[in-house]
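FIELD: query
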Amino acid sequence: MNRAEIRENVFKLLFCNEFNEKKDMPKQYELFWDNVYNEDETVKSISEKDRDYIAERAGTIAENIEKIDEEINRVSVGWTTKRMAMVDLIIIRLAYYEMKMDEDIPQKVAVDQAIELAKKYGSDDSPAFVNGILAKLF
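FIELD: result
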């Protein structure tokens, strides 16, 4: 699985986190893998190593949401994380983690990939919004 696919799956798991209690997440993760990869014919299988890596990244981001949101709120003039579209917010959180907390990913790559996720999953305005917030965090 390449980095873009890993990133997209981390995004999806973070989205699941928003609608479930923390204690339910291990079961939700298993349901995620069962449903996504049994229905999506473009992905035949995923290694246990990739599954663990994706779940670990999503878990680390979820554990740091308060800190991440604090930084996002600090730079987002006229917007708070409570007012942002959920898809945009999750993409920004993921990119923040990659930019500031993950030494393996160059900041420009994190921004570029966040914009790609915003194009795929967000509204027409999402790429510009995500880019604007991330530019202030850079």
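FIELD: remark
The chain has one domain: 3-137.
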